[in-house]
């Protein structure tokens, strides 16, 4: 009789948990995964996938307007929020089913219900205890909601996909990637959008030139920004909400969307009872192998707050399963991770910003930029300009950072990330023939 019910019990069926479960099962492990909501996690169910579908839907607002300059006559166009909302929800349902099929096809047992650690090898799921030689925590993160009067009247990115109707007015609190993305989406769909932030900076940590370009373009489009302000309380009105600021001013809105970052999902896990230590950020502390302070318990993904990106959680889950069950120890390389903001227009970035290269790493930096108006924008009569920036180590000629804002920037950036990851030089960029006419050719024409 086996000493444990399972070789591996995973808490959380998101991107990292599903990948770890599938790979471990492929190595012959007896695997169970506990999930209290829906298989697929934040990215698939209420994050990057449905958000990107909303971004696609929002883009038609400008595309249909621009079509006239390209000879198309489109009469009677109108937008129906319920159609987009429900079609996105249906796609999420489809993906949820595919993720469940992945677990089933790999003979992974799904345990539905909230999971809580009882000891180093025991997990309670919905009142029933299960034992496992190894436990993996992959519960992800959740939106942060501030502790101020009336905060409960706002919504988060969890609820924004299910709004009963398109709000006439929306205030978004925060200025990170989630805030700027939803600002672009709901503005294009027809809402009057105001972004509020306690500092005067949007997209903190991104290349400042790109963040400033997005701010200027967003203002020109008609998105409102109230910066350097502190929200004091939220008042519920009969027909909406009234936001009161510490400076005595106030604004009214139909919907308040909290987009102030995300915090690890730790509530009710029983970490303190078992002795799983947290780091200074309040996330689960792990070593290079993703092992916690308890030898039999590991953690991957946003719950460790290393890098809150889906592909990172997937890599961590895969590396964990190969290391623990496949006899092929691996560690995740966190250098040169590409990232994107699906704002309007979108941003893409990989590697160091100019400031990081100079002050943090001490490089003798050379910077190359291309500030241009995309061909489509020219004929459409749009004045929006794209900006590409390469950060180069002057002593080695290596491209250590690439940053861009403009149409299809994330799609282009993925290919550039390969070059940056590979350590290619500016000379090798220059030696590459341009593909004309494209926006991406600007990457090899910066002299």
Write the layout of secondary structure elements.
Layout: E1 6-11, H1 15-26, E2 31-35, H2 41-46, H3 48-66, H4 81-105, E3 109-112, E4 115-119, E5 122-125, E6 128-137, E7 141-143, E8 169-173, H5 177-189, E9 192-196, H6 208-221, E10 224-226, E11 231-237, E12 240-245, E13 250-253, E14 255-258, E15 262-264, H7 271-274, E16 297-299, H8 310-325, E17 339-341, E18 347-351, H9 354-360, E19 365-372, H10 375-380, E20 386-393, E21 399-405, H11 409-422, H12 426-431
Parallel strand pairs: 1-2, 1-6, 2-3, 6-16, 8-9, 8-14, 9-10
Antiparallel strand pairs: 4-5, 5-6, 7-15, 11-12, 12-13, 17-18, 18-21, 19-20, 20-21
How is this structure best described in words?
This protein has 447 residues and is α/β, with parallel strands linked by helices. The protein folds into 3 domains: 6-143 and 263-325, FAD/NAD(P)-binding domain (3-Layer(bba) Sandwich); 151-260, FAD/NAD(P)-binding domain (3-Layer(bba) Sandwich), CATH 3.50.50; 339-444, FAD/NAD-linked reductase, C-terminal dimerisation domain (Enolase-like, domain 1). It is 32% helix and 24% strand. It has 12 helices and 21 strands. Strands 1, 2, 3, 4, 5, 6 and 16 form a 7-stranded mixed sheet that branches. Helix 3 runs antiparallel to helix 4 and helix 3 (48-66) packs across helix 5 (177-189). It is globular, with a radius of gyration of 24 Å.
């Amino acid at each position: 009789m086996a000493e444990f019910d399972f070789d591996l019990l995973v808490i959380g069926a998101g991107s990292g948990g599903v990948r770890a479960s599938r790979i471990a099962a492929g190595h012959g492990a007896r695997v169970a995964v506990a999930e209290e909501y829906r298989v697929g996690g934040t990215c698939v169910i209420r994050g990057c996938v449905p958000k990107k579908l909303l971004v696609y839907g929002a883009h038609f607002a400008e595309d249909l307007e621009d079509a006239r300059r390209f000879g198309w006559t489109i009469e009677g166009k109108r937008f129906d929020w319920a159609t987009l909302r429900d079609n996105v929800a249906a796609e999420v349902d489809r993906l949820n089913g595919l993720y469940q099929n992945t677990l089933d096809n790999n003979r992974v047992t799904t345990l539905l219900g909230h999971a809580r650690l009882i000891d180093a090898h025991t997990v309670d799921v919905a009142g029933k205890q299960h034992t496992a030689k190894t436990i993996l925590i992959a519960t992800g993160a959740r939106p942060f909601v501030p502790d101020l009067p009336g905060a409960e009247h706002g919504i988060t990115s969890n609820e924004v996909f299910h709004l009963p109707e398109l709000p006439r007015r929306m205030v978004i609190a925060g200025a990170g990637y989630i805030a700027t993305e939803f600002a672009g989406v709901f503005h294009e769909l027809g809402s009057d959008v105001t972004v509020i932030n306690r500092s005067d900076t949007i997209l903190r940590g991104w290349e400042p030139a790109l963040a400033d370009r997005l701010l200027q373009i967003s203002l020109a489009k008609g998105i409102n920004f109230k910066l350097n302000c502190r929200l004091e309380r939220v008042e519920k009105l009969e027909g909406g909400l009234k936001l009161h600021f510490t400076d005595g001013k106030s604004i009214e809105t139909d919907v308040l969307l909290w987009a102030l970052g995300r915090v690890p999902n730790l509530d009710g896990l029983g970490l303190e009872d078992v002795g799983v230590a947290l780091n200074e950020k309040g996330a689960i502390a792990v070593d290079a192998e993703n092992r916690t302070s308890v030898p039999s318990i590991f953690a991957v993904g946003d719950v460790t707050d290393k890098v809150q990106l889906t592909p990172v959680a997937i890599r961590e889950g895969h590396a964990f399963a190969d290391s623990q069950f496949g006899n092929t120890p691996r560690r995740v390389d966190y250098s040169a991770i590409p990232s994107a903001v699906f704002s309007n227009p979108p941003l893409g970035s990989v590697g160091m910003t100019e400031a990081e290269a100079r002050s943090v790493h001490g490089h003798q930096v050379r910077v190359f930029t291309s500030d241009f108006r995309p061909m489509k924008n020219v004929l459409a009569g749009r004045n929006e300009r794209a900006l590409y920036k390469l950060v180069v180590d002057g002593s080695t000629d290596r491209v250590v950072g690439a940053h861009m804002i403009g149409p299809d920037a994330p799609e282009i950036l993925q290919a550039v990330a390969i070059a940056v990851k590979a350590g290619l030089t500016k000379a090798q960029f220059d030696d590459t023939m341009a593909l004309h006419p494209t926006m991406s050719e600007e990457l090899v024409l910066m002299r």
